[in-house]
Amino acid sequence: MEKNLKKIRIIAVILIAILLCIVAFGGFYVKKQGIWENVIPDFKLGMELGGIRELHFVLDDTEEEKEVYLDSNGNYAGDVKEDSSNTEVSLETEETTETSDQQEDSTDIEGYTKETKTIKSNNDEDINIENFEVSKKIIQQRLEKLDFYEYNIRQDTVTGEIIVELPDDDNIEVEQSMISTVGKLEIIDEQTGLILMDKSDVKKATMLASSENGYQTYLQLEFTNQGAEKLKEISKNYQSVTNEDGTQTTNYISILLDGQTISKTYFSEEINNAVIQLPMGNSTENYEEYLDIAQSVSTIADIINEETMPLVYTLSSDNHINSVITNDISMKVGIFTIALIVIVSLYLIIRFRLEGLKSAILSIAYIALLSIIIRYTNIIITVSALIAMICVIVINYIFMIKFLKLLKETQNRKLAFTQTMKKLYLAIVPVCIIAIIFTFMSSVIISSIGMILFWGLFMQAIYACLMLL
Amino acid sequence: MKLSGSKKIILLGLILLIVAGITIIVLKGFNVSLMYQQHEAINVVVGKEINKNDINLICKEVFKNKTFVVRTIDFFNDSVNINVESITDDEKNELVSKLNEKYGTSLNIDSLNISTIANIRIRDIARPYVKPIIISIVVIVAYLIIRFRKMNVAKLLGKLFGIVLLTEVVLASIIAIARIPVSPVVVNLMTIVAVIELILYINKREKEYSSQE
To answer: What ipTM was reported for this prediction?
Structure first.
């Protein structure tokens, strides 16, 4: 009775193994709206295998004539607003109202002079090898802030031109803006354009979110001691005030990143704690939309926290370049792998007969299971990850051979299993350590190795128990 | 420590190999893979569906012994990106005429969009590896100290580092002498060799340790 039960169990395991192979290598098709669709997800490929986006950035050579403010030392203090002398927003009436005294004065602000100047995106004296290096370093730091980053960066040390190779995925636009954003933060008087504070006054930027009455994202700016004093003064001056005649005038400040307004606000009270929270975008009920906004705000916060780029780069070309590895090469590698598996399987069968056949089938099913897990855990496949996959498959075969040898010697399945497992795992402790450490790294090239080693070894430890049957 | 005759020969061979490797590294450096070194990239919009194997054959005829890599651009399969060490005017003319001959197009030299692609620095290739490898080494050493605390740990670690270092230096010398193109795959393979050595060494010590116990 027990012998029959054992036979049934073995047959069941082998059938499941064959089924796994069919699903992993052939797919699992379900009819959706009249079309048969494979529900097993595709492999996610890294840059080397899936192709790249090659972004060429060159130094921005544009120049513009602008009317600017200059302080008493002749330093740039902001762009003069074209409409600085005639408009003001009223919150109550939503109409433009008469200009307050402050605005009329704005055409001639005390301590500042106006001058028309040619402003170059990159000053000639800034274009030097040190700044090329700094810009490249900042780009690297920004890209490495992403959760799973993968990139190659090249820099021409003569022209300063930068080529960044990135995977062609959904993040490409974020990555592109991270590279071309200079990160110049300014808090200006919205009415006049005069710079009130800049990045040197900001200690830290953080993304915050609240979920009351829909999702709302905030950019929190924490100021330095010097910035806190300025903020205190600004918060007193930039408020909504009701005049004697009942009209309400509001003095706004704008927060600019690279000259683009990211927020426009005023204060309702004096700020004494050196922190402001700026609502970014509208409150939304849509979680996906919220995530998009949160990602953008988080990127802005990261850019503010990093150094400002000393040079302005602009995108000159963007190409999608396919992988060197073509279908032909993949086919050849596939055939070679199958041939190797067949040879090892034949060795197992010839050497260990029925037990060898069982382990050969289970080993192939192990590869199938691993390939399914890789797809469901969204591991990005790189060439290094493929090498890691080969390593875990080899470890599994080593386990099978060692186990079968010991089983042949001892004829005791349990003893052979425990001894082989103990010996194998004591020897590969370093690999387990590497697997765990690499898994938690942000670089795709490293984390993919770690994740494949982790899942491969974890599955091997569980899967090996089938040999007890 | 006395060495037998064959071991002396092996050691001498290894020393010679390392000296030769270091000399080549100092004089010529490693042979960095084409895609990681400064090279010329030629982008051509052929305008007709191209076959990568045909372009490879054309490049072989045009660039002869030069290393080149061909990739297709975009999704329409009508543009190609050819990466080559350098390109002369004659090679440009030959490339254009062979492409015209093959695809019946009327391309000229101006149709070739040639740009110099800067190198990727080896330190940038190695950058993502530094942190995880240092952490891994620290944790593995801590594990070895705890696991083999009853043995002479200092000797054990010294020997292990010596073996791994020697192997890596020998491998690096072979790569330098044989002018094998260095790429992240080569770096990974070198890491795997180090890990295999580590596993074998630990396995040996485990056997000694269990026999001691």
So the answer is: 0.87
The Cα of B183 is separated from the nearest Cα of chain A by a number of Å equal to 11
Q: Are A204 and A227 in contact (CB under 8 A)?
A: no
Give one DSSP letter per residue of A442-458, joined into a string.
SBHHHHHHHHHHHHHHH
Task: Measure the CA dihedral A156/A159/A160/A163, to 10°.
Answer: -50
Q: How much of chain A is in helix, strand and coil states, percent to nearest 5?
A: 50, 25, 25
Comparing CB atoms, the residue among B43, B136, B198 nearest residue A437 is: B136
Q: What is the mean pLDDT of chain A?
A: 88
Given A56, A321, A431, which is nearest B71 (Cβ)? A321
Q: Which residues of B touch A153 (CB under 8 A)?
A: 120, 124
Q: What would the two tokens of residue A445 be? A: 């090239």
Q: Are residues A154 and A179 in the same domain?
A: yes
Statement: residue B182 has pLDDT above 60: yes
Domains of chain B with bracketed CATH: 5-31+121-212 (no CATH), 38-117 (3.30.70.3170)
| pLDDT level of residue A386 (50, 70, 90 thresholds) | very high
* Cα distance between residue A258 and residue A413, in whole Å: 69
**A226 lies in the same domain as A118:** yes
Domain boundary among A321, A351, A375: A321
CA B54, B55, B57, B62 torsion: positive or negative?
Answer: positive
DSSP-assigned states of every residue in A381-406: E-HHHHHHHHHHHHHHHHHHHHHHHH
Chain A positions touching B192 (Cβ under 8 A) are: 387, 391
**What would the two tokens of residue A184 be?**
């110049």
Question: Which residue numbers of A have CB closer than 8 Å to B's CBs?
Answer: 56, 140, 152-157, 161, 163, 319-324, 326, 328, 383-384, 387, 391, 423, 426-431, 433-434, 437-438, 441, 443, 445-446, 449-450
- Residues A62 and A120 both lie in one domain: yes
| Spatial strand order in the sheet of A113-120 | A76-79, A63-70, A113-120
**Cβ-based neighbours of B139, under 8 Å, separated by 6 or more:** A433, A437
For residues A420 and B37, give the distance between their C-alpha atoms in angstroms, rounded to a whole number. 46
Q: From the CA of B184, how many Å to the nearest CA of chain A? A: 8
Higher pLDDT among residues A180 and A90, named by residue = A180
Residues counted in chain B = 213
Show residues of chain A in contact with B124, CB under 8 Å: 140, 152-153
A57 with A125, same domain?
Answer: yes
3-state SS class at A217? strand
Indicate whether A62 and A99 sit together in one domain. Answer: yes
Q: Which of A268, A291, A321 is the last residue of a domain?
A: A321
Count of domains forming chain A = 2
The DSSP annotation for B170-182 comes to HHHHHHHHTTPPB
Same domain membership, residue A400 and residue A309: no
Sequence letter at residue A45: L
Separation of CA A231 from chain center:
33
* Residue A410 exposure: Cα atoms within 13 Å on the Cβ side: 15
Q: Which domain holds residue A410?
A: 2-47+326-468
User: Mind giving me the DSSP string for A219-248?
Assistant: EEEEE-HHHHHHHHHHHHHSBEEE-TTS-E
Residue A222: strand pairing partners: A204, A275
Q: Which of A156-165, B32-41, B185-194 has the lowest mean pLDDT?
A: B185-194
**pLDDT higher than 50, residue A70:** yes
